[in-house]
Amino acid sequence: MFLLTKRNGILEFFGYAKVEDTFIDNNSLYNDYYNSKKKLKLKIKYFENPISTLDISDELDFVKNKKRSADSFKSEYKEIGIDDFKVIRRKAKLVNTLPAYLDEISMNLNEFLENTIYLAYNIVKHYETRKQIEILKFLDIVEKFLKGYGVKKDKKYLIHFYSKNAISFGFKHIPSRDPDKFVPLYTYSGDKKNFAYISLE
Questions:
Q1: 122-142 burial, b for 16+ CB within 10 Å, e for fewer?
Q2: Which is more confident, 17 or 83?
Q3: In terms of domain of life, where is this protein from (predicted)?
Q4: pTM of the model
């Protein structure tokens, strides 16, 4: 899985994650949300120098419109073929430590939180067999992700942040009659409406 970030307004590949091992562990993850015994151990390899998508798009098969290559990178998750993987991988020299150029990335906290929420959503959507997840449980997962990055934001803060930005995420939200599951989300009219679930369909 290649990793992308935006630097100076340009999307760049800066590393990739691979499954290093699979193992059996009876402990649950993310406050008992993920209960599968089978776990994956991921290892991240960073690129010594980032690879601009502008420089490499002409060589990638999944980029259909070379003149509008940015359109091919808009989705948060995209499956690519082995040939494209090899093209990107050949251009990268790997390092084991966080490269200095990542310290230069101009990303404020809000952008970081948004990216983390998108990442959590796509991982949950990929592995979850149910059609929806409670918003509160989803934010528990986001909080765990943030702690893994060394960012400490409590649940109350995340609920407030998600409520303000729910429209921009583009997720489908589903109401409930159970008040214990309510999360008030801002609507297009600027009013708040109670929802309880995020659709994974």
A1: eebbeeeeeebbbbbbbbbbb
A2: 83
A3: Archaea
A4: 0.53
